[in-house]
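User: Design a sequence. Structure:
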């Protein structure tokens, strides 16, 4: 009886440890990113600089072929998708997209929402929507009503990026927009384009693992 109980306890502990490792795997990744404050005048705004790449590369992840967001911190690109942002602040986002066009299944998501002024810019030109088939990714914080479609690089563009972080000399689209953080909270953000090449319906792997195509915004 004592031996059976010991085996049962050992089995329960083994399962608990396995679950712990699995949760660690799902939520793991680099330390949260805290963007630098914006102007020194005290204006409540900050800059958040991102890039999206077709394959993150072995320098940044063991899953080198996974599609990913990267964030720039002190001039260095990191793979981190958990960001700490101040409350009630305008966040000026610059996103350099080096990835191709995957296409949105739901064209509704090709319309920008929740951004200041109702528009974003593609290479400096104002826009409010894109061709859903030309979407590479989206940047969305559903709880804040924010969504911006990210235009993909065309297949025939010269100088495609082949190693992340991608240098600015390689083909990219520059997407800029501003959103307001609002009150304190813990919000999920994610991409809605089925961009995970090689996974069922494009929604596995990097689309459901924090640290690639989704993460969290801690508004403090
Ligand atoms: Cu994506």
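Assistant: Done.
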């Amino acid at each position: 009886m004592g031996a059976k109980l010991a085996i049962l306890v050992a089995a329960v502990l083994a399962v608990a440890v396995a679950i712990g490792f699995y949760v660690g795997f799902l939520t793991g990744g680099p330390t949260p990113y805290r963007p630098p404050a914006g102007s020194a005048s005290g204006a409540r705004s900050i800059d958040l600089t991102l890039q999206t790449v077709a394959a993150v590369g072995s320098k940044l992840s063991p899953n080198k072929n996974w599609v990913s967001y990267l964030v720039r911190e002190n001039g260095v690109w990191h793979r981190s998708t958990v960001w700490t942002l101040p409350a009630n602040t305008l966040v000026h986002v610059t996103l350099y997209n080096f990835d191709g066009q995957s296409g949105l299944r739901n064209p509704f998501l090709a319309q920008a929402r929740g951004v200041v002024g109702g528009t974003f810019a593609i290479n400096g030109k104002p826009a409010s929507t894109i061709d859903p088939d030309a979407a590479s990714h989206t940047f969305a914080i559903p709880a804040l009503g924010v969504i911006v479609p990210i235009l993909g690089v065309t297949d025939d563009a010269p100088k495609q990026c082949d190693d992340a972080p991608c240098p600015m000399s390689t083909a990219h689209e520059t997407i800029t927009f501003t959103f307001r953080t609002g009150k304190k909270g813990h919000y999920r953000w994610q991409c809605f384009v089925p961009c995970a090449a090689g996974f069922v319906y494009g929604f596995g792997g990097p689309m459901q693992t924090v640290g690639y195509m989704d993460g969290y915004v801690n508004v403090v």
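The radius of gyration is 19 Å. Helices lie at 2-27.
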